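Side project, low priority. Logging it here so it doesn't get lost.
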Amino acid sequence: MKVKEVKKLLAIAVTISMLMPSVAFAAEEIHTSSSNIETPSEDLKETQSAETGGSEEIGILEPMTPEEYEQATGYVLPDGYRYVLEDGYVIIEDGNPVIEENPEYEKPDVPEEPDTPEKPDVPEEPDVPEEPDTPEEPDTPEKPDVPEEPDTPEKPDVPEEPDTPEKPDVPEEPDTPEKPDTPEEPDTPEEPDVPEVPSVPETSEDANETQKNPEESNETTQGTLTNDQLIGQQQIVSLPKMVEDFRFWTIGKKYAFAREAVSIVEEMTDSAREIGKLPEKGVCYIIQEEGNGWLYVESGTVRGFVKEEQVIKGEEADDRVAEMKKQAKKEAKKRKKSYKGIEYLLTEAEEIVPAEENQAFLHTRSTVRKTVVDKVYALCMENQTEIYEDKNADSRAVGMMNQNDLCYVLADEEDDYVYVESGNVRGFVKNDALKTDKKEQEKEERNLFAKAIAAAAALQSQTEVSSLFSKEAADAADEWNGKVVTAQVKKAGEENFKTAKELVKPEENEACYYTMTSVKSGVPNGEIRSSVLEFASQFIGNPYVWGGTSLTEGADCSGFVQSIYAQYGYALPRIAEDQAQYGTKIPVEDAQPGDLIFYAKNGYIYHVVMYAGDGQTIEAMSTSKGIVRGMVNTANAVWAVRVLEDEMQVSGIYGSDISEVNASILQYGDSLGTFKITHYCSGSCCNDEWAGVTSTGAPLVEGDTIAVDPSVIPYGTKVIMNGHIFTAEDCGGAIKGKRIDVFVNDHDRANQYGVYNAEVYLLK
């Protein structure tokens, strides 16, 4: 190619770069189809292997992303074309990159028309060949490059003509652009001699001008580090092993009533075993809607599945409950007794299969029953005290306690074998091995009685003995109030007591669910992770778009995880290289479902995946594969990042006074209108049965929790009422429309605040 032709092509490249601002794209895995566009010549092949990134070898070249390939070879991708990639790397055939026409290349074609606007070129008369001397007047560097053949500017405007771009890519030729010292006018002033910016045609609707080039190669790191060196520069944190909690948690009641006699079954099939029988008009509570026509329900001690069409639910069921409440309150008033709910009016299921034999019992650990009980402290009095799986010493030992180890009595305090919980160990302990408040109180009473007998023998007076006994008993009660063990534990602090050594894991311990209760609520730890994976899975099969962030229209690897996490309130950076620095870095082998895993090559982060457990991933993999379920690439995985919080968080203001103004004027968003505000407590007077947590699984917290109609205010929405911030966490049963119930700690406070109307605003 002649020098003047090279100069003309360079001038075209500079002109295009001035007309088209560069759009950043993710340097991620892209696949397309082939093309016959000319590619770099043989003399460039050997320069392509040193600084590439990828996961597999292609021919004699090391795998390279488009950016790495262009940096290593100086190759410029022609306008209107895109690379054919495999796993994010350029496919090389016969030493040349495989490219194809880009069907989405529309906007970059527009520059053909703006040739005339380019004032630096030929102001109004670009087609006048006889005026080649006029281009020298504009000091712009492009024109001096095309003085010999100004009569053919139209041909360079056609992007198809630059079928031979390899010559301009030759590094020695671009020395001439140094004359135009003003190529700063193009959008990339610092790289006037590198034509790769204007040659990237894959613009995307989802990539915006403010984002950095996703997964853009960093000249200071790419190719200069090994992956081990890259990892060595990071602060990788080893997190405590996440233990799946075995405890149940309480949720609000969603009533359903049998249309006729219904079998509650063990599995979601017509032929499944019947584990309980629900009579006509019998009540069950919807624990989980499975989305396939089945409901997971609880009725009495029975937990299993029924078909949706077999029960009355929703508004019709709520109306029936409202009528029952009216009836129960009317009867209570007539009998001059306190209203204590509608439980006595409800008929529950008959158990056919015991809970311990019911395979559906642990389908989920949420329940409408009370799960948290008051702490009844007990201290072990002997070393090597075994906790048994059953109420006898011949059963298996599931745990071991030593003297002064702490446990909590959950059931059967009066029996020979007491059901206890110590740490994560639950089972039966011999009663005489425990020290409890009740036993200490009984011991003190026996001592007082012995003293009274002695006094009677000395005084020979029935009256004086009775008086002495009563006074001494009263004095003693005032002094220690019968709570010897409780006082001892609280004085030293519960956290300073040791608990039982686990001998059998909870899931293998048949005594684990002797009761559903515990001294603390179960935490639905895996729930947010399961939710994230379930949400991400619905986009499997959608397209991969380089630079995209749309879950439906297309996203690249970092855009995909950014958009998924945004649905859960996490604002991740846009590109994988920055995402790798977000959150807590942990070893890849410690990753849990929902964590992010990052891949690197030659010390450069080039890809991110969402871990799905069991070595699987959900990821935006490539153009040819799209969003898929894949497997972890252990060879290139360098570290994982934990963003999701495993502990159940209570949003809002913890335990604050609901009348406290804690919202600033800048936090007020749009008005939702005027709502009827009612206050409620957790007692049976306001709830048919106490619920430890809300419908969303979060605890009830005064100053934070409100119950709403979720069709009006979705769960998780933060609102401002009377200057105070609240979070919509509960459905409140029969709440419909523009009503809000506000939770407070006791019934007196509920009565104190009463009912009123208030304007409600969204929190910005």
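Brief comment: The mean pLDDT is 74.
Revisit when time allows.
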